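As the next step, I selected for study one protein, both as residues and as discrete backbone shape codes, as given directly below:
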Amino acid sequence: MPDVNALPPHLKAAIPSAPVSAVVLDYGNVLYAWEPMAAVAGYVSTSAWEEFVVDGGFLSWNERLDRGEPFEQVLADCTRAHPGRPDWAEILSLYRERFAASLTGPVPGMAALLDELLEEGVALYGLTNFDAAPFEAARLLVPQLERFVGIVVSGHEHLAKPDPGIFDLLLNRYDLVASSTLFIDDSGVNIEAAGRLGLRTHHFTGSGRLRAELIALGLLPTPGRR
């Protein structure tokens, strides 16, 4: 039988979809809200933060942390890259120090959804871009993670979404079949990367829309019907 994932899109579309046997969820802004500025609120003005994000390259520095680079190296590179703006290195350092404050609360409806999926016996996995050290505390904010079959954290693997390597690592480590695996993420770029590898995808915009898709896929029962 040919490898379905290797087929061109028009031929894939003609093949009936395999039942979903595994669900993979992102952490930030899917299970728990991540608002970076909350970490520096009260210490840094909104305008100073936004300038750092746009002109100081916050997202690039954060991506390096997500790939597991030592914070000291990232901070040193930030300092060297912007010698005339020591305040940007100070903001990055403050963000890291107060990172826990950037996790501002559970995404509405997701805790109940996880409980229901686990009750139905659905195999759940995590795939998150996350600095390795802070993740160990962040995972405690979502108790259901202890019942996930496995979690891949970018900072531990030195790979980050949307690099196809981290999706391959997930699939190979847990013997998952791409066409039977549903990947849920709030990033369109990550969704596109997963789709190119043959995973089923859901671009997360809220728990209500996700619930509807999970019911349609047969992973959750229609409310009131058992």
